[in-house]
Amino acid sequence: MADIGDASAVLKTLKELNNPSDILYIRTILSKVMSLHAKGFDVREALPKIVKLLANQDLVVKKALYNILSSYSFSDPDVILLATNTLLQECSDSNPMVRGLAIKTICTFNHETFLEYGIRSAVKGLKDSSAYVRRTAVLGCGQLNLRSKGVCQEHGIVDQLYRCIRDPDPVVMVNSIVILEEILTKEGGIVLNKNIAHFIFGKIETLTPWGVLYCFKILQKYQPKAEDEMFDILNILDPYLTHNNNSIAVHCFELFLHFVKEFPSLKTEVIKRCFDNIVNVVKSGNPEVVFCVIEFFEKYMNESGHILNEHFKKFRCKQKDPAYLKVKKIDFMRNILNEGNVSDILDEMQLHSTDSNEAVSLSALQIIAITQQSHPDTSEKCCTIFTQLLKSNVSHVITNCLRVLQKIDLSKSDNCAEFLSMLCHCLQFIKDDSGRCAMLNLLGNYGNIYEDAPYVLEDFIEDAENFSTEVKVHLLHCCMKMFFYYPGICQHMLGKIFEICYSDRDECLQNIAVYYYSLLQTNIEDAKHDTSLSSINNDLQLDKSLSFINNDLQQDKSLSSIYNDLQQDKSLSSISNDLQQDKSLSSIYNDLQQDKSLSSINNDLHQDKSLSPINNDLQQDKSLSFINNDLHQDKSLSSINNNLQQDNHYLLSTMIFNRINHYLLSIIYSINNDLQQDKSLSSINDDLQQD
After folding, report:
1. Where are the bilayer-spanning segments (predicted)?
2. What is the DSSP secondary-structure string of 225-239?
3. Number of H helices, E strands in the chain
């Protein structure tokens, strides 16, 4: 960055400039001023001198002066206003370059003070005899529209721009179409009638490549009403289907499809003719262009798949291709697979499956898996490839193999046992979480086939505390499944993983462990059925929803105060401990459902004197009342409920809550009804209140 002393010296030199005829010296000073301005220096102290230099007739000097003035039009409008008279005079200068620069500068002044001057100069420039001035004036109208929406409609500029579409200069024509499309965005853009459309078609050959591209895009708004008119237009467009500029060929192709969408036979021929020309671009050395061309082909694969099948060799990856292009080419191969090229494509994918780039390797393996499913006769070859790769010692290759294999139904494969037997070898080479999760999914899904699966799982559990939460969730799910295959062997492992998950700092992982444990306690058959049907994705969805609830609870200060009060309340803690130690709740619940007389309970209540101290504690304990009030007043719970309803995983968390809620409510309602029916308890209640 320039030194502050140098900046001051440059500005001082500009202000002390006394010889305006020395053009080279003035250029040198202004170039330094512009350099300082570009680097962030404030050069507004030189504005008065810059205004005085506007009379200079050198175009380079004028461009530099106009550029600096435009930068300070918003912050220093009073100083810039001094230059406005000079600029308005230069809008009528004999030199069209000066007129164009003046119009451009006034229209770019970003202050409402200069808006009227900009409108006046732009309208005058649209009628200028010079094509350069008209081009600049049209673009100036776009600048005015950006500064004040609706100003062009109010001053009739839109109608003048429509007239400029018929301008003899092709650049003025295209600029007018572009600016009209911007100004009329809310109205749907420019309106094309038959006369305007045919005028544009007649001017296509005179336009620049950029102008041709934009006009092809805009002309898709027009639909010919008669077939003869449509075929006349297609004859005009036909040479551009095989244009040496591929962008023009692609845009022309899309315009062709727009016109022939009601003629399927013509559509097929247009696709074949265009694709035969564009497919040669894939062999070019420009990776960005090749990437765009492949994306273009993907849009029309339903209509053109059979055309590109014979060109599959052109989509092979080159050694010098960047990784993103290799992935794009490999993914595109799935669209052109057929009986004739499947063997060659498999050989190609086997080559890239060991690529040093992980993304390229994974894409190649996915294509092999897709080929195995879509072409069953290649199953043996695909399994051989997977077997060879699993025996390798490359970490990311083994990981990618496992990630792909977990998505294939191996139960019907003759090689399932062979794949599973290699897991012990693979374990030592897996370094990332995705590989560990994939291996655990395979063990859980096919543990009944592989007898050594529990011992592989045991190696995981030994190091479970060092794994991430995602791996622990997969490990817990796998242990649950393995427990039903080998209960005697896996009982101790399941207990250990429950202990690890419950003691983990992640509350979501704790909740998942509690959920699985409650399933095992409630009904072992239901737990087995639920675990076999659910996938690990359900666990991850539960994990996300629980974390969402946890975040809301952590942000809710009123709930934290309730939690602190609950911790300080000794009576509640003692009741909680008694409830945790009391294992007879389920038997009491069964008795309550079967026994409606409550006679035995009534006798016990008469004889039991320990109720009085509990009753006293409950009457003295005021924390319960204010907890209830806080819960009623707490609006954050309603927001949590709304968020949960918006959450995709709301059903899963609701299922767990409803089970617990239904169990507790059934006990409360049963006791409440029996207490209301049993009049003998009223006397006990009176005694308790008096004691």
Report:
1. none
2. SSHHHHHHHHHHHGG
3. 41, 0
